[in-house]
Amino acid sequence: MLEITCNDRLGKKVRVKCNPDDTIGDLKKLIAAQTGTRYDKIVLKKWYTIYKDNIKLSDCPLSLLTKMSKASADKIEEFINDKLKEDLKYYEQHLKQLSEETIEYTQLKNQINTLKNDLPGKSFKTQVDIGSNFFMQAKVPSKDKILVNVGLNVFIEFTLEEAEKYVQMKINILEKQSDVVRDEVCKIKANIKLCLLALGDKTRLIKGVES
C-alpha cells in the first residue's frame, strides 16, 4: 500500500492511497474523486518531468511514497471483522425483523378491508386450523369487532375502523424505523469499503460487501 501526497499550484495537498501496480492514470482518477477536478485536466509532474498515464507508480519517484505498516493493516482488519461486520450483521437482522412485521400488518390490513367490503352480512363461515394442518369449519357470528395482537401476545378488541387506523399507524412506524436502520446498513457498508480500499485489497473490495 502506498500513500501519495500531491500538491497543486495553490499549495493544497491531497493524500491518496493506492497500490504500486497502479498507473498514473489510476492515480489521477483517485485524485479527481477527492477534489472534484476533471480527470483529463489533472497533470502530474515533479519539477519539469511530466508523468504519463501508462507509467506504474512503482517506476516513478513521486513526492511522498510511504508503505502502510503491517501493524496498521492488522488494526484495520481487526476493526472490520470485530466491529463493522458485527454491526452490519446486527442491523441486517433488525431490518429483516422489521420487514417481516410490516408484511404481517399489511396482510392484516388487507384482511380488515375484506371483512369490511367483500363479506356480505354480519356473520360468515370460515375454517380454523386446529393443528397438524387439520381444519374445522367455524362460524363467526359478528364481524364488527376483531382482536389485534398489540405486542407481547397482548390482544385488544377493536372495531374494524379502529383496527384499520391502528394497523396503518403501525405500518407507518415500522416503515420509518426500517428507513433509519437501512441508512445505518448503508453507512456501515460504505465504511467497510473505505477500510478495504485503505488496505488496497481489491479482491475483497469486490467480493466482501455487496452494494
Automatic annotation (TrEMBL):
Family matches, as Pfam families: Prefoldin
User: Record's InterPro entries?
Assistant: Hub1/Ubl5, Prefoldin, Prefoldin_subunit_alpha, Ubiquitin-like_domsf
Annotated keywords: Coiled coil, Ubl conjugation pathway
Respond yes or no to whether keyword Coiled coil is given for this record.
Answer: yes
Coiled-coil region(s) at which residues?
81-118
Designated name of the protein: Ubiquitin-like protein 5
State the organism named in the record.
Culicoides sonorensis (Biting midge)
